[in-house]
Amino acid sequence: MNQTIGDGQSVKSSTMPLPKVQALGESFTATQELVGNYQGKENQLLFQLESNESKLVMVGLTNIGHRLITLEYQQDKLTAELSPLLPDQLKANYLLSDFLLAFSNIKAIRSAFNGSAYRIADHAQNGTYTRIIYNKSKPIIEIKYDHVDPWQAKVQLKHLVYGYSLQIKTIAKQLL
Predict the structure, then answer these.
(1) Which of 28, 55, 58, 68 has the most CB atoms in a 10 Å sphere around its CB?
(2) Exposure string (b/e) for 45-78, b if CB count within 10 Å is 16 or more?
(3) Mind listing the pLDDT tens digit for each residue in 20-67?
């Protein structure tokens, strides 16, 4: 039995404003390895992604190929199916926002944050590229990359408020 978010949950109203799918660039398919850590527990998932100019689909699989998560983001609406095997703390909108904040272009994120309490800062130092998301003046998310192109980087995301971290590595990406 899967938990389903009905006809589409608005992601904008209760969370930070997110960039549109177009902020990811050209249409693509990709495979990513994600390792999450929360309260000392580590979980690993393989994600299959597909994006075009209006829709992003993310499917999270176990190492042996069992589907645990399906997310579809289109026109500011998120539809999700989550396996009951996943912990209750895992929220579809967190996965979506973390992915978009890590892989969207920075100008699109700044544009989405315009007029809100959120802002993003970025800098590079000694081959490490960092994005920090602020709510008012408080840092809430830190994202580090070991390459200027997030798709070629080992991405390390720390949510400073909710206390979890993600390591994301793109295994393959193909433009459509």
Answers:
(1) 58
(2) bbbbbebbeeebbbbbbeeeeeebbbbbbeeeeb
(3) 999 999 999 999 999 999 989 998 999 999 999 899 999 999 989 999
**DSSP string covering 5-71:** EEEEEESTTTS-----GGGG-S-EEEEEEEEEEETTEEEEEEEEEEE-SSEEEEEEE-TT--EEEEE
Write the burial class of residue 87 (CB in 10 Å: 0-12 exposed, 13-18 middle, 19+ buried): exposed
Smallest Cα–Cα separation from 170: which of 56, 74, 29?
29
Q: Which two tokens stand for residue 53?
A: 């100019």
CA nearest to 50, candidates 174, 153, 157: 174
Please calculate the CA angle 65-70-73 and round it to the nearest 5 degrees: 145
Tokens of 112: 């989405």
Residue range 112-152, pLDDT digits in tens: 999 999 999 999 999 999 999 999 999 999 999 999 999 99
- For residue 10, name the pLDDT band (cuts at 50, 70, 90): very low
